[in-house]
Design a protein that fits this description.
Helix content: 25-40%
Distance between the termini: 27 Å
Order of helices and strands: HHEHEHEHEHEEEEEHHHEEEHHHEH
Structural class: alpha/beta
Radius of gyration: 21 Å
Length: 377
């Protein structure tokens, strides 16, 4: 892609993807059929054989994951403010209290020390986020969760295809959630998934995502074949076959997507190293990121100026994210600015540059040229 408006992220759909979707449209099943089963099996193989529940979005995945873990009133979830709001709001919708803990300055991931300080006797889940595609400090956070008697959840919306200490994301935390929005590493148009290490957690998650319907009647077993029971409240978060087919096709291309993103990140690092007024993204040695964002820090209070000028030049930079506790829905509950100073300082400087597999080298060079001119000007 060269010329015109350059988005910060974009899907990459080829003819094999189109053919996979067309095959479903010509078949007998549009939803809740064999393509869903195949996609869940494909994704399970990718994450080490653990149970997978496909759902309609990354937000739905978080809602389903918390439900599968039994999150509810009287319980607390410790998480990061440096994320899309759904990491917190879906826990709150189930009645839990959210406790925000600050992030590490280098990766902007949940800081284990801050998470430990935020834990109470009511903590049920420690929810990390793999910011920008860099896996969180999962070993340290596992210790925090275990000491609290809590589950570890990994919001991996940014990081499918990454590894942590040689283990694929999706095989480490008790529960992992993925997003398949078009800007992510692979897409189902809209969609997401939940991976659980424990079969019972996976079964509860699936029941919640399938309207609360029991796999088999358990209370009234003398009815006919038509009969079913719902023993819990749930929602219809079923991913349609037509989108699952796109997911399986895209999953086969995931290694190439991740590799191309890594190439672009390396090129950004090289070309921006000498540009003044920037702090480039950092990487820890025990992970292999799957870069979703190229997240720089614009220093000296110039982020707004740089954002506006790059947008005026047709470069679709973005800010990821507004600290979640700043949103009115949490402000109205008593959360206040200043409670997570590292995350808030990072927000004041953060800027995501365009990054997606179909981005041409010339596109990247254009971004670097304009950004350099603005910062040197």
């Amino acid at each position: 892609m060269t010329g015109g408006f350059l988005p910060y992220g974009r899907q990459d759909v080829d003819e094999e993807d189109v053919a996979a979707v067309a095959a479903v449209l010509r078949g007998d099943w549009l939803t809740t059929g064999p393509a869903v089963d195949a996609f869940e099996a494909d994704l399970s193989a990718h994450v080490g054989g653990h149970p997978v529940v496909s759902v309609t979005s990354g937000t739905a995945a978080l809602h389903v994951a918390y439900a599968g873990l039994g999150v509810g009133p009287g319980q607390e979830v410790v998480t990061t403010p440096m994320t899309f709001a759904a990491t917190a709001t879906t826990a709150a919708m189930l009645g839990a209290t959210v406790r925000f803990a600050d992030v590490s300055d280098d990766t902007l991931n949940l800081d284990p020390g801050a998470a430990s300080d935020a834990v109470t006797s009511a903590t049920t889940v420690v929810a990390a986020v793999d910011y920008a595609g860099h896996p969180a400090d999962l070993d340290a956070l596992r210790k925090v969760a275990d000491e609290a008697g809590a589950a570890l959840l990994e919001d991996a919306a940014h990081s499918i295809g990454a590894t942590h200490a040689g283990r694929p994301v999706g095989s480490v935390a008790d529960v992992t959630t993925f997003s398949f929005f078009p800007t992510k590493h692979l897409t189902t148009a809209e969609g997401g998934a939940v991976v659980a290490l424990d079969d019972e957690v996976a079964a509860r998650a699936r029941r919640f995502a399938r309207i609360g319907r029991d796999p088999q009647p358990v209370r009234h077993t003398d009815e006919g074949a038509w009969f079913y029971e719902m023993s819990v409240l749930g929602l219809n978060y079923r991913l349609p076959d037509v989108l699952a087919a796109l997911g399986s096709s895209q999953l086969r291309r995931l290694p190439a997507f991740v590799a191309r993103r890594a190439q672009l990140v390396a090129r950004y690092d090289e070309l921006l190293a000498a540009v003044p007024g920037l702090r480039l993204p950092e990487r820890r040695g025990d992970v292999e990121p799957a870069w979703h964002l190229y997240s720089v820090r614009v220093l000296d209070g110039r982020r707004r100026e740089v954002f506006d000028r790059l947008r005026a030049e047709g470069i679709g930079v973005q800010v990821n994210y507004i600290p979640v506790h700043w949103h009115p829905v949490f402000e109205d509950l008593g959360y206040r600015r200043g409670m997570c100073p590292v995350a808030e300082a990072a927000y004041a400087e953060q800027l995501s540059l365009p990054l997606f597999p179909g981005m041409a080298d010339q596109d990247l060079e254009r971004v670097v040229e304009v950004l350099g001119c603005v910062l040197r000007g």
